[in-house]
DNA sequence: TTGGCTTACGTATACGTTTACGTAAGCCGT
DNA sequence: ACGGCTTACGTAAACGTATACGTAAGCCAA
């Protein structure tokens, strides 16, 4: 590929002048500019970002690490981050870590080798030695839709209070026998806080919590099917379910419908995430909405701000909302 | 950040030796290796890929460009590509182009500046000057789930024959009044061929095609809702619908159900793509399946092969399948 | 005339690696 | 003792760009 040296030769100027013209730095005559531009065009020149980045010691790239689990909202996070990055002339390099985070440390190293300007880690739990590694990194890192200890800033909604609101929303609609489906007791980020929020809402309204109503599971559609089958054979059957994901909620709805129950008349369901499947469910799913696109965009903006101002990133709790449809 | 020069100083060797040790090239004693590794560890060294890439003139990065439209299968393409890339030590840099491709040329330039090893463009229509630009690029480009002229290799399923199969599947299940919902007549890639496949199947089985049965639209859920409302007020109402996307199909199912029709008894629906919503529909959606993860992975492999063997990439038509569920 | 300022360049170095090449030391066989 | 081979290094030159610095030319004021 042609270099500025080739352009310089063809245009009959020095490489410094070519560089100045190409970067709009001024200090050249209009005539020279035309010669250089013409030469560059004719040679099909593309600037070498690696060389430029090496010299300027900045790659203008933001890294993004996500788990390899098939979840629907990742697309929104990517698009949010990428749109913000593109706006500021940054690129986004993305890598998937296995959901258990086994290879996370390696992937972080690869990002460091690429000299990313900053790193976004979405929806992954961090073990201690990864936290240590991150704290030793010379660029900002921000967590999205997850958190660890105080040392790493994060952007997420408040799971406990979102769960409280979801549960209270059901209570306000007259339901008293309310279940929670899907939480994982060993998940300190999206499991335990959601159970706590659920319990707090029930307690506030002096409603009993039947331990049988807590169906531990995953965020999957299948988990929702299992949850509903489980509830179905309960003697003290719940009238409403707060589900920890939209997929799980739809699993519940589909299974309930197949068993002859009507949603929301016989059983109400509220989901979590408000992904695109929520509106496609039948009936359409009422759900807690997480602003994934905004989370991605915000992560990008915070990193760019941090790089340009040299200030540390501050965590941010984003507001959740309840998108009302017809499943409650 | 520390450089190999710093390591060399600390370990008391030359930078060449450090480089050799760090790259496992041999030509050093075990004692030296240990000294170097210890020094590198203690300084928290990360290799500078920009410098290495500049010297070796290879960035070990594959570019991926996708439209910014909210479609569910992009995640699978990304994951397929990224998993294959990671396996071979490549990174993936991703950029979104507006769906109309206005800024596509710029984005391709950015990829060229980053000296990607190859470029994957997914699901975008290419205008002539972009095609020209691509043909002038010094690295391989492969299209995924789209095609242009002969000059650029692509990986996709055969839309015409998939549509033929979908339609024939309905015919084999006894339906005769079959509609097609969602195609766009100006879409030469996913519009016209699907209409043609549909018509060919109908003709083969000597079934009449009522022009009213072709509902032109988009790939969206809303388009499905509109399609069903439209079919509903038709005097010659179809008994089955071939829908150009899963979202559209589910829009049809939801609307039909709300209007009191039963799926598939009163109206059968077959979707296209087999995204994750297909199994979550009620009833679960029978659909043409496109292997998106495999498409991404294959694109990655072809690029890596092309780079390493210096051979051009050949187009490939991937087989589609019909995933049978309960909407037919 | 001289000095100083501005404009429009060119020269040369640095960024951090990789790697071709040189070389000293050690060992072998003759 | 000598040449030749191998091993374990070091030296130095790239890769393509940005940029600090130098400088010649032109202009103006005193």
Automatic annotation (TrEMBL), chains A, B:
<protein>
    <submittedName>
        <fullName>Transcription regulator</fullName>
    </submittedName>
</protein>
<dbReference type="Pfam" id="PF13377">
    <property type="entry name" value="Peripla_BP_3"/>
</dbReference>
<keyword id="KW-0805">Transcription regulation</keyword>
<dbReference type="GO" id="GO:0003700">
    <property type="term" value="F:DNA-binding transcription factor activity"/>
</dbReference>
<dbReference type="GO" id="GO:0000976">
    <property type="term" value="F:transcription cis-regulatory region binding"/>
</dbReference>
<dbReference type="Pfam" id="PF00356">
    <property type="entry name" value="LacI"/>
</dbReference>
<feature type="domain" description="HTH lacI-type">
    <location>
        <begin position="2"/>
        <end position="56"/>
    </location>
</feature>
<dbReference type="InterPro" id="IPR000843">
    <property type="entry name" value="HTH_LacI"/>
</dbReference>
<dbReference type="InterPro" id="IPR046335">
    <property type="entry name" value="LacI/GalR-like_sensor"/>
</dbReference>
<dbReference type="InterPro" id="IPR010982">
    <property type="entry name" value="Lambda_DNA-bd_dom_sf"/>
</dbReference>
<dbReference type="InterPro" id="IPR028082">
    <property type="entry name" value="Peripla_BP_I"/>
</dbReference>
<keyword id="KW-0238">DNA-binding</keyword>
<keyword id="KW-0804">Transcription</keyword>
């Amino acid at each position: 590929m042609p270099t500025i040296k080739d352009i310089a030769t063809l245009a009959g100027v020095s490489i410094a002048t070519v560089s100045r013209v190409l970067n709009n730095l001024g200090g050249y005559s209009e005539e020279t500019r035309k010669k250089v531009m013409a030469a560059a065009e004719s040679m099909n020149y593309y600037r070498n970002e690696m060389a430029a980045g090496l010299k300027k010691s900045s790659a203008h790239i933001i890294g993004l690490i996500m788990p390899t689990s098939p979840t629907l909202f990742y697309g929104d996070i990517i698009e949010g981050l990428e749109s913000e990055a593109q706006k500021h002339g940054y690129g986004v390099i993305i890598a998937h870590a296995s959901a258990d985070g086994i290879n996370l440390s390696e992937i972080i190293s690869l990002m460091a080798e690429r000299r990313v300007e900053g790193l976004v880690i979405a929806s992954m739990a961090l073990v201690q030695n990864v936290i240590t590694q991150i704290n030793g990194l010379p660029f900002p890192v921000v967590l999205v839709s997850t958190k660890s200890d105080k040392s790493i800033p994060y952007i997420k909604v408040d799971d406990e209070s979102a769960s409280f609101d979801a549960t209270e929303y059901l209570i306000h609609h007259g339901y008293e026998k309310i279940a929670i489906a899907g939480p994982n007791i060993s998940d300190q980020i999206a499991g335990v806080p959601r159970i706590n929020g659920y319990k707090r809402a029930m307690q506030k309204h002096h409603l009993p919590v039947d331990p049988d109503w807590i169906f531990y599971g995953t965020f999957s559609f299948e988990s929702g099917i299992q949850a509903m089958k489980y509830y179905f054979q309960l003697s003290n059957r719940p009238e409403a379910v707060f589900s920890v994901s939209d997929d799980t909620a739809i699993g519940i709805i589909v299974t309930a419908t197949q068993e002859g129950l009507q949603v929301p008349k016989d059983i109400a369901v509220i989901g979590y995430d408000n992904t695109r499947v929520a509106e496609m469910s039948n009936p359409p799913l009422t759900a807690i909405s997480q602003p994934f696109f905004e989370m991605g965009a915000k992560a990008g903006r915070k990193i760019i701000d941090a790089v340009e101002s040299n200030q540390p990133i501050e965590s941010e709790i984003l507001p959740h909302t309840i998108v009302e449809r017809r499943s409650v």
